[in-house]
Amino acid sequence: MRTVGEILSEARNKKEISLEEAEKATKIRKKILQDLEKGNWNYLPATFTKGLLKNYAAFLSLDEKRILAFFRREYDEKRTAQITKPPQKQGMSFRLTPAIVTGLLLAGVVFVILFYLFFQYRSFTAPPLLEIQEPKEGAKTSFFEVNVIGRTWEDATLKINGKQVQVSPGGTFSITVSLKEGANTLTITSANRFGKISTVKRTLVVEIPKSASPSAETAPH
């Protein structure tokens, strides 16, 4: 069965009337006329739509009562379809199930394992940290001893001029090293268990102040 829009469009085309001409004659905007012919009148109030259809039908010399009867039938059908349309499914709410908890725990274990493996790989491929706070490079002193203060990895093997020294928990160290007069070179190395070595060198100079020479006595005449 034909729709209201099809009847209107067919009648207008049969009379060879353009939408622009129909707009001027009926004072109904072209956009609304197009919607009436296509059946896109859902956005319009039903009473207003009936008035538009009645005027448009009269302009096209159509039976107004017949057009309104077709409209009521289509209106009722669309309204019934909207009422009986099944409701859209709501978004599923999140539930913390035992399976999800187990999955999260497994993910946590995997993360810890990967972090441990990364740390081991880093230990294998990278030399250990070695920072020397004291003494500074090129420092001068008048003492024959100096404190070497710094930080390295806790499990690293630390040596100063080839002699192994103890590293405190946390990787810090403070060692007293003997010096000789003149230039001294301190070679500090830190090696991890995979043989990767970090090296820092410090050059110090021991300067002993010279005693003032005694004044020459004036010979008696």
UniProtKB/TrEMBL annotation:
Gene3D superfamilies: Immunoglobulins, lambda repressor-like DNA-binding domains. It comes from the Bacteria. Coiled coil: none annotated. It comes from Candidatus Woykebacteria bacterium GWA1_44_8. One of its GO terms (molecular function) is DNA binding. This is HTH cro/C1-type domain-containing protein. Keywords: Membrane, Transmembrane, Transmembrane helix. The chain crosses the membrane at residues 99-119. InterPro entries: Bact_Cytoskel_RodZ (IPR050400), Ig-like_fold (IPR013783), Lambda_DNA-bd_dom_sf (IPR010982). The keyword Phosphoprotein does not apply.
